[in-house]
Specification:
- With 477 residues, this protein is an alpha/beta fold.
- It folds into two domains: 100 residues, Alpha-Beta Plaits (2-Layer Sandwich), CATH 3.30.70; 318 residues, Peptidase S8/S53 domain (Rossmann fold), CATH 3.40.50.200.
- It is 23% helix and 17% strand.
- The chain has 13 helices and 17 strands.
- The strands form five sheets. A seven-stranded parallel β-sheet has the order 8-11-7-12-13-14-15, sandwiched between helices.
- A hairpin with a 4-residue loop joins strand 3 and strand 4.
- It is globular and about 70 Å long.
């Protein structure tokens, strides 16, 4: 079940904010569908046995990692190891037959994605000596919900959006809840930090003036088939980005307005299938390779179309699912992952979704204006007994800038996560000597429920002023 919460009417946002049941997600079953536009096809994940014979070497990491990525590891005393080596090109060549097309690889999981229109082409590949296992992870649907073609946007804000008494405008309360202004007042606004946004699309983020001015390092699309333009897909990523990167005084200021952002599309909004865990992993590996410091992931999974590949509660240990295994590796690469807890709290699942169960990440649940957990916010613990969520932030509602260029309320852990993510980047800017694990532990430690953590509220609401003041040096880098 897709863990997005799309733009809702203000009345529904208020109902959730007061703890009453009744928020909605657009239903695939009740929406108008159209025939899938391509031939019937299938994607298989090949997990390989080894990386023997690879032409790449740990002694030459610049062949597969950027200087910034290597420096991030060096600064945190983290080695480049065998998981960083790319998949053996000879193995990729063996899997690229006349009947298959290679569409992606994962070096961390030593796996290859191949698409085919003929399943008979897969049988001989399963028997290759280099192949450990082979799993179908996607098949093209018979029909899909067509993407909205409404790309209109406002290039100016409404006069009533301006809050003359507040430099932060609509975002003031959600940042103040976490004492985030204290970082900004000392000059820590994300300068020099790079954040990757893993999402499903960034509609009009190249056109809306407030969003287009955000410093962007670039974009990548990991979904097959790729979008013709990620700026014409869903606006979910636009909203997430706005919470962090916007800087329009008296209208809206985000949590890390001076940071640089990579916009990475890894969520297929047309279907919900296990391959999206591969797309997410490929995006995370790319973020690592280009030297990203922090990742925001406001997507998550537990149930798939036709229940093929569904996860179970006993999988929730940070190691079983591919997406959570990948997420659990990030701190070891020197990256902080900030992840939404998921919006399953009012459904039959109720728990956090994957990869929110990963080790060494910050999982964020959603608060109401009364500073209690929103009813839809996924809960813990993990199967192996770890506290989840880690922390809480406003999420019911949150002020965002939509793909129409308007300031609007929305709800979901999707938007609680970037509030924390941007402030994490600012805190790390203030203390670049800290490791990813140091940052994660500091955010937990200076939350208001740290002494008595539970599996609804986690360690509580983080106080970034206390976190900043507690650390040994405060200087703008």
């Amino acid at each position: 079940m897709k863990q997005y919460i799309y733009l809702l009417i203000f009345t529904i946002a208020c109902l959730s904010a007061t703890g009453m049941p009744g928020y909605a997600v657009p239903s695939k079953e009740t929406s108008q569908k159209t025939k899938y536009p391509d031939r019937k096809s299938y994607i298989y994940r090949f997990v390989l046995r080894d990386k023997q014979g690879t032409p790449f070497s740990l002694e030459r990491p610049r062949e597969f990692l950027s200087r910034k990525s290597i420096e991030r590891r060096r600064r945190q005393n983290l080695p480049v190891d065998s998981t960083d080596l790319p998949v053996n090109p000879d193995y990729i060549h063996m899997l690229a037959t006349a009947g298959t097309k290679i569409i992606g690889t994962s070096r961390w999981n030593n796996s290859v994605l191949a698409v085919t229109t003929d399943t008979a082409a897969i049988a001989p590949l399963r028997r290759l000596g280099c192949v450990k296992e082979c799993t179908m992870v996607w098949q093209s649907p018979d029909s899909i919900i067509p993407l909205s073609r409404h790309y209109n946007y406002h290039d100016t804000f409404n006069s009533w959006d301006s809050v003359k008494t507040s430099p932060y405008g609509a975002s003031e309360k959600q940042i103040a809840t976490l004492n985030g202004m204290a970082l900004h007042k000392k000059g820590y606004t994300g300068q020099g930090m790079t954040i990757a946004v893993l999402d499903g699309g960034f509609r009009n983020a190249d056109k809306i003036p407030a969003i287009s001015r955000i410093r962007k390092a670039g974009t990548r699309d990991f979904v097959y088939p790729p979008s013709k333009n990620i700026y014409r897909e869903t606006d979910h990523g636009t909203k997430v980005l706005s919470v962090m990167g916007t800087h329009v005084p008296h209208i809206y200021i985000g949590t890390a307005p001076a940071a640089t952002y990579w916009l990475l599309r890894c969520e297929d909004t047309r279907t919900e299938q296990p391959v999206e865990e591969d797309y997410w992993t490929m995006a995370a590996e790319f973020a690592d390779s280009v030297g990203v410091d922090v990742i925001n992931s406001s997507i998550g999974y537990n149930q798939y179309d036709h229940h093929y590949g569904d996860h179970r509660y006993h999988d929730m240990n940070g190691r079983t699912t591919l997406i959570s295994r990948s997420a659990s590796m990030l701190a070891g690469k020197g990256i902080v992952l900030v992840c939404s807890a998921g919006n399953s709290g009012m459904g039959s699942w109720k728990k956090i979704v994957f990869p929110a169960d990963a080790d060494d990440i910050i999982t964020v649940g959603a608060l109401t204006p009364q500073l209690v957990n929103a009813p839809f916010s996924g809960i813990g613990p993990t199967q192996d007994g770890r506290v989840k969520p880690d922390v809480m932030a406003p999420g019911s509602p949150v002020s965002v800038i939509s793909g129409r260029g308007t300031v609007a309320p929305d709800i979901g852990t999707s938007f609680a996560s970037p509030i924390v993510c941007g402030l994490v980047a600012c805190l790390w800017q203030a203390h670049p000597e800290m490791t990813a694990r140091d940052i994660i532990e500091t955010v937990r430690r200076y939350a208001d429920n740290y002494a008595t953590p539970d599996n609804i509220f986690g360690y509580g609401i983080p106080d970034f002023k206390s976190a900043l003041d507690s650390l040994p040096k405060n200087r703008v880098e």
